[in-house]
């Protein structure tokens, strides 16, 4: 028999491909920065400038890949929910049926009871409400996937790529001694400038290190994008597997009571 969850797993696989693509793109971001040493026209001291090429295109590329990953993660949930209902509660599938995510536990329970899931598939009802917990204050990862998917339907979920620091700077002081240093992380937009005292010279300009985070206006604002997407993927897989097991549990229950 064809696996009813095949579509869900394919969507999850595609999401993971997008996550891997995003991880590769982020790892290449530092190479897009160009470092040059300039002379401060006011003080005459050296200043290293780190600037980025094609910044707008990079942001757009990241946003598009992010949107594709989020969409496929959400689709994996919807496919899994539909596959579950087809086996356990096919009469209760409607035109707007999708994986249930609600602001609160009370609203989630009310929605499931409205579809009579508590009556026709009590094990599934308990699983969703008590273990999966797709509501505010419950499973934050699943709720965030849901919110980001809605956001991306209206605007690009633009990332912030400017959480950056410069590492590996080496300078020669006025005594000819070489010192190493780095900068604090900053959320300011490039270019980045690192000045040194008059009479000091750059031996190595350093390299930019970047953490790509979710942009303002999202529920994940400030969080590491690649890291969180990996967490979301693991959480979605867990939900899919839980729903697969729920079918076995519920069918076993029905077999015992002869329904």
In brief, what are we looking at here?
This protein has 259 residues and is an alpha+beta fold.
What is the strand and helix layout of this fold?
Elements: H1 6-28, E1 33-39, E2 46-52, H2 55-88, H3 105-114, H4 117-120, H5 122-132, H6 140-154, E3 159-172, E4 178-181, E5 192-195, E6 201-214, H7 225-257
Antiparallel strand pairs: 1-2, 2-5, 3-4, 3-6
Task: Note down, in words, how this protein is organized.
This protein has seven helices and six strands; from the N terminus they run H-E-E-H-H-H-H-H-E-E-E-E-H. By secondary structure, the chain is an alpha+beta fold. It has one domain. The strands form two sheets. It has a three-stranded antiparallel beta sheet with strand order 1-2-5, with no helix packed on it. The mean pLDDT is 92.
Spell out the key features of this protein.
259 residues, 3-stranded antiparallel beta sheet, single chain, alpha+beta
Number of strands: 6
Global shape: elongated
Q: What is the mean pLDDT?
A: 92
Structural class: alpha+beta
The percent of residues in helical segments reads: 40-55%
- The main sheet orders its strands as 1-2-5
């Amino acid at each position: 028999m064809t696996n009813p969850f095949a579509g869900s797993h394919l969507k999850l696989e595609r999401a993971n491909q997008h996550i891997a693509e995003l991880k590769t793109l982020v790892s290449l971001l530092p190479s897009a920065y160009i470092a040059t040493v300039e002379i401060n026209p006011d003080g005459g001291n050296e200043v290293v400038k780190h600037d980025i090429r094609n910044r707008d295109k990079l942001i757009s590329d990241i946003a598009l890949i992010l949107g594709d990953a989020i969409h496929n993660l959400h689709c994996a949930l919807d496919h899994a929910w539909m596959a579950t209902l087809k086996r356990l509660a096919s009469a209760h599938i409607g035109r707007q049926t999708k994986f249930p995510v609600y602001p609160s536990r009370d609203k989630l329970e009310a929605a499931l009871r409205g579809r009579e899931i508590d009556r026709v598939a009590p094990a599934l009802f308990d699983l969703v409400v008590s273990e999966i917990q797709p509501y505010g204050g419950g499973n934050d990862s699943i709720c965030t996937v849901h919110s980001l998917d809605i956001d991306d339907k209206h605007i690009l979920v633009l990332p912030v790529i400017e959480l950056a620091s410069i590492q590996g700077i080496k300078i020669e002081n006025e005594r000819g001694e070489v010192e190493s240093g780095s900068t604090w992380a900053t959320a300011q937009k490039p270019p980045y400038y690192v000045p040194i005292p008059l009479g000091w010279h750059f031996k190595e300009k350093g390299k930019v290190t970047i953490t790509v985070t979710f942009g303002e206006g999202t529920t994940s604002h400030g969080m590491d994008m690649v890291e969180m997407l990996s967490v979301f993927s693991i959480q979605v897989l867990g939900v899919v597997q839980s729903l697969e097991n729920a079918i076995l549990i519920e069918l076993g229950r029905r077999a015992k009571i002869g329904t």
